[in-house]
């Protein structure tokens, strides 16, 4: 009877170790996916900023901010 309990406990401990290893692997994969997503978002933001600046988009934005007194004042 004691041997059966010891065998069950050993099997459960092995299962726990396997599940811990699997969780660690999944956490690593998730971290990699988040980093990849962050890199893609950063790249898209840079592309958007570059195209916005090349289209002269910053001037109209400054005018709109000035209308709401949020940009640098041009009149005193």
Structure description:
The structure is a single chain. The chain has helices at 2-54, 58-67. It has 76 residues and is mostly helical. It has one domain.
Task: Set down the secondary structure blueprint.
Layout lengths: L1 H53 L3 H10 L9
Which radius of gyration do the C-alpha atoms yield? 29 Å
Distance between the termini: 92 Å
Report strand %. Answer: under 5%
Query: What is the makeup of the main sheet?
Result: none
Number of helices: 2
Query: Unreliable stretches, pLDDT < 50, 5 or more residues?
Result: none
List the helices and strands in order: HH
Number of distinct beta strands: 0
What structural class is derived from the secondary structure elements?
Answer: mainly alpha
Shape: rod-shaped
**Helical content band:** over 70%
Q: Main attributes?
A:
single chain, 76 residues, mainly alpha
Summed up:
With 76 residues, the protein is mostly helical. It is 83% helix and 0% strand. It has two helices and no strands.
